[in-house]
Write a structure and sequence with these properties.
mainly beta, five-stranded mixed sheet, three-stranded parallel sheet
Length: 98
């Protein structure tokens, strides 16, 4: 609980299972996952994906081929509009199921 998993490597994963925790990744084509309540799954690298459980959040950045940030968006996983345990990517500023 209340811990962090961080990764900067390409095609890597950062996973956290504790409540009120965070998983972050800045590597190219990487993924983040959180399984504990009130946690944040944050993918900020190029072509990143993120997933989280109910009552947690995802944050994703979308970058162009030069690595410049185009969009940053956050959403709460509510089980309705945003599904639990599903990877999302940010494409054209919108969350897309992976």
């Amino acid at each position: 609980d209340r811990s962090a998993a961080t990764n900067t490597g390409n095609q890597s994963a950062a996973t956290n299972t504790g409540d009120r925790s965070a998983a972050t990744n800045t590597g190219y084509q990487s993924a983040t996952t959180v399984e504990g309540k009130q946690s944040v799954s944050c993918g900020l690298g190029y072509d990143n994906r993120a997933k989280a459980c109910i009552d947690s959040w995802i944050v994703l950045a979308e970058r162009n081929d030069n690595g410049e940030i185009l969009h940053v968006k956050t959403a709460k996983i509510d089980g309705k509009k945003m599904k639990a345990d599903v990877f999302y990517k940010l494409i054209n500023g919108k969350f897309v199921e992976e």
